[in-house]
Amino acid sequence: MHKKNMFVSILVFFVGFASMAQGTTGSVPPPPAPPPPPGLPIDGGIVVLFILALSYGIYKSNKLSRKNA
User: Fold this and answer.
1) Chain-centre distance of CA 49, in angstroms?
2) Each residue of 19-44: pLDDT tens digit?
3) Which keywords has UniProt assigned to this entry (predicted)?
4) Concatenated DSSP letters for 15-67?
5) Is the pTM of this model over 0.70?
């Protein structure tokens, strides 16, 4: 009988400890979200850079073909 009472009291202790470890999520609000990253406008610059690179490539290609001819 003594072992049964000891087992029940240990079981009640651990069940109470486990329920205390869960905590309550309703009382503490979650931390705020981090701010969004800054928007960087690269649309126009990419198009201009592509056009410049294409024209430079055509220029170098024509210059190289005239040199070899």
Assistant:
1) 30
2) 665 555 556 777 899 888 787 766 76
3) Membrane, Signal, Transmembrane, Transmembrane helix
4) HHHHHHHH--SSSSPPPPPPPPPPP---HHHHHHHHHHHHHHHHHHHHHHHHH
5) no
